[in-house]
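INTERNAL AUDIT FORM
Audit reference: QA-55
Scope: verify that the stored structure record matches its stored sequence.
Auditor: D.O.
Record contents follow.
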Amino acid sequence: MTEAQTEKLQDKLAAAKEEMQRLKKLETQMLEAPDKQVSLTDPDARSMKTRGAGVVGYNVQAAVDVMHHLIPAHGVTNSGSDRNQLAAMANKAREAMGRKTLDVVADAGYFNGKEIVACEADNVTPLVPKPQTSPSKAKGRYDKQDFVYLPEEDEYLCPAGQRLPHRFISEEKEMKLHVYFSSSCGSCELKAHCTTGKERRIKRWEHEGVLEFMQERLEKNPDAMLLRKQTVEHPFGTIKHW
């Protein structure tokens, strides 16, 4: 190896070590960030999932008036999910339109129990379908929707006709949950279609009634999601086209 080649390799090695140090500093910065992300071109931008792909950018929020197709409120966030945006955007639209009350339709990506309850507190009536992501249903077993809540008795009725009485209260992710289960699951003929555990437990959030009432409104208004597509999707489609 010639002296020139040795010098060239040493330069490359030095550059590689320098790059490793730079990346090490970025790794430390990334791990210290709350969302474990660092954007080198735009500090506020974040990785967003869109149609199965990852894009570094922003999450644009918009509320569109059904009657006039105008945009009374909009916003930009670097949160990659819409799940925590419903109440703030709905209230922003209500105030911009000078309304005391407002009906709001959003897609399943906005479904969040706490956000829906917050909307009700701000005189906003939300219509948001619940995502069908039940692990039990995916495995061919009974879903929570197959259990009927009996409000007067504060019990659940299971598909086998057994009552699941209220047992205790637990807390998960800062949510107060009521737990129901039956002592008859072990001898049930339908147990294999229900649970692999000792008994099937049903958890009911303290504000579950608000979500159930919203579901009733959705069932009475089956065209709500079609109306949403014809309004809020239209401006986004136009912007993307241009």
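Auditor finding: record pair retrieved intact. The chain has two domains: 49-131+220-241, 135-206.
Action required: none
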